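Structure ticket #2291
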Amino acid sequence: MKKIVIFASGNGSNAENIIKYFEKSKTIKVSLIVCNKPYAGVLDVAKHYSIPTLIVTKQTIENLAFDWKNVPIDLIVLAGFLWQIPSSLTQSFQNKIINIHPSLLPKYGGKGMFGNAVHKAVIENHEAESGITIHFVNEHYDEGKIIFQSKISLEKNETVESLCDKIHQLEYQYLPLTIEKILQ
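Resolution: structure written out below.
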């Protein structure tokens, strides 16, 4: 059985989508949710699906590579996790940590570029298209090798909210499929 660990900081909609996708799988399962906010909605999602959770601080996340040295983890998925992953983890789990980003990297990536900040920048710069990027995680924000991208066109009257909804639909559709492809 391949084991996925999901890192999330928010309400957990992508985490829940991944959990549901693999819920009946005989080969892949979500084994742990890691969160840096003790009251985040993703913890309720984990509880609902009986998935163990781990709350991390800036100090404890540094020790995960050591703590998980002999733990069978096949893939770490960042699904709305807003902290930079420490190099101890990126080095220990090289090409085993992926992130989903709400733009077509390398555009609109880097520190502070997440969620609505990305969508606002895309609209303000009059981009014709946006999309999602799923990429491996390295020690730099949003600079890891790109695994998959999917594009959408922007409408003339696009708002941050409407673009956000479109991007979420791409995430829900393609993140579980990409995880499955990586693990097979």
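Closing remark: The chain has seven helices and seven strands.
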